[in-house]
């Protein structure tokens, strides 16, 4: 899924504040545009859309940057049992811990816990999906204060490694409107890093 992007040169890998010196392939740009378009359609489609087409124009993203695509080492969780995670509405959702993803970014070691949504894995076509919810140092300023989400796929795991592409980070629906049950990223998924990639904070236009 993330194989069509070129690697950064060493200098920009070590200093994520710089702009990537390597060009992004057109194939990857097209893939990312399609990914974001599908998310936008989900927000604006149907009889009771979360956002109108006009409101959705306020959705914005950081510039695509390959520096925020990292290869993580997975430590699979053994004998995991279902548990609940609180949401911003006060309700709880059921998840299963899948693995710990360990990676390096900006000269720092970081880790994220990856989950499986117990409802989603029962849906045909979605049973391979993995869910990541995280917070970072941009929350409340450049990005939504409640954190952001990512989906991964078990078929992309190779030799206990997976690519995490933070350019695909998206906002929970709670960033757009009240009334949604958005999982709260647990403390172990609070990154002491700035993730200047993916979807930015949503500010509805008057």
Question: Which key features would you list for this structure?
Answer:
alpha+beta; 3 helices; 206 residues; disordered N terminus; 7 strands; five-stranded antiparallel sheet
Q: Count the beta strands.
A: 7
Which segments are poorly predicted (pLDDT under 50) over 5 or more consecutive residues? 1-22
Helix share, percent: 10-25%
Instruction: Report the span from N to C terminus.
Output: 37 Å
The major pleated sheet works out as:
5 strands, antiparallel
Binned strand content: 25-35%
Written as H for each helix and E for each strand, in order along the chain, the element string is HHHEEEEEEE
Number of domains: 1
Q: Looking at the structure, what is the overall shape? A: globular
Round the mean pLDDT to the nearest integer and report it. 88
Q: What is the structural class? A: alpha+beta
Cα radius of gyration in angstroms: 17 Å
Number of helical elements: 3
Give your account of this protein's structure.
The chain has one domain. It is 14% helix and 26% strand. The protein contains three helices and seven strands. It has helices at residues 10-14, 26-44, 53-56; strands at residues 69-76, 83-86, 92-105, 108-117, 129-134, 148-153, 161-165. Strands 1, 2, 3, 4 and 7 form a five-stranded antiparallel beta sheet that branches. Strand 2 (83-86) and strand 3 (92-105) form a beta hairpin.
